[in-house]
Amino acid sequence: MTDAVNLARKLSLFDEHWSPRGVASFNGHDVMVVKVQGEFTWHSHADTDDFFLVLKGEIEIRMRDRTVTLREGEMFVVPKGVEHCPFAREEAHLLLIEPAGTPNTGNPETAAVRQSV
Amino acid sequence: MTDAVNLARKLSLFDEHWSPRGVASFNGHDVMVVKVQGEFTWHSHADTDDFFLVLKGEIEIRMRDRTVTLREGEMFVVPKGVEHCPFAREEAHLLLIEPAGTPNTGNPETAAVRQSV
Q: Where is the Cyclic nucleotide-binding domain (chains A, B) (predicted)?
C-alpha cells in the first residue's frame, strides 16, 4: 500500500455479499471491506478474535447468549472461540480485520476465496 | 467489551490531543480513538505497523520521502520501521490499532500514558 485507502471507493468496486476484499495488510492481518445482507452462517474462529466496524447500515452479531446491534460508526470484537452469526436486514458495509488467510466461515472448505480490491 | 462501541461517543468523552484512549482489545492489540491537531513528533516503531483510519477531519502522514493525505473514511498503514510524523491542520479524529503497550511516540519515555475510555 503506497497511498490512502478510500474505503467507500473500494466498496464501490464490487457488489457480491459476504465476500471480503483485502485493502491493506497490518501486522500479519488482512484489513478488508465487505458488503453483507441477510444471514451468514454460524461459526467461530478458534485462533483469532473477529473485528467488525460498520461503515454503512446496521448489522446484528448474533451470539448464542445474546445479540449485539452495530450501527454506522460502531465496532465490536467477537472473542476467539465464540460462536457468532452476523445478520443484516438490509445491505451493510463493514471493515473487517483478521489474520491473513483466516477462513470467513471458520472452515477452509466453505470459506470465500480471499481477494483484494 | 460486551456491547457495541460507538466511536463518536467515545471521542466525546475527552478533549486532549495526541492522547489515544483504548476502546477494545483485538488479538493482543489495543484499538484506540484519538483526537489530533497540529504536528506530532517524528518517530517510528521497530516492531509494529501503525494503523490509521480517519473518522473525522483530515490528516497528513508525513514520511521522509512522501506525504499521504487521509480524509474521513480513508485509512493507511505505516509499515514498521518507517519514520513518520502525523499532522492535522484542524482537529481530526482517528481510529488507531497498535499492539498493546506500544509507545505512541516510539519511545516509552515520551509516550502518552495508555488510557481506556
A: 38-76
Of A42, A47, A48, A46, nearest in space to A64 by CA: A42
Are the beta carbons of A82 and A76 closer than 8 angstroms? no
The tens-digit pLDDT sequence of chain B (117 residues) is 679 999 999 999 999 999 999 999 999 999 999 999 999 999 999 999 999 999 999 999 999 999 999 999 999 999 999 999 999 999 999 999 999 988 888 888 888 877 888
What does the pLDDT look like over B88-101, one tens digit per residue? 999 999 999 999 98
CB of A48 within 8 Å of a chain B CB? The answer is yes
* Cβ–Cβ under 8 Å, residues A22 and A14: no
Instruction: Note whether ipTM > 0.95 here.
Output: no
Per domain, the residue ranges of chain B are 7-116
Q: Give A112 to chain B, closest Cα distance, Å.
A: 22
- B75: closest chain A residue by CA: A5
Q: How far apart are the first and last CA of chain B?
A: 12
Report the distance separating Cα B71 and Cα B31, nearest Å. 19
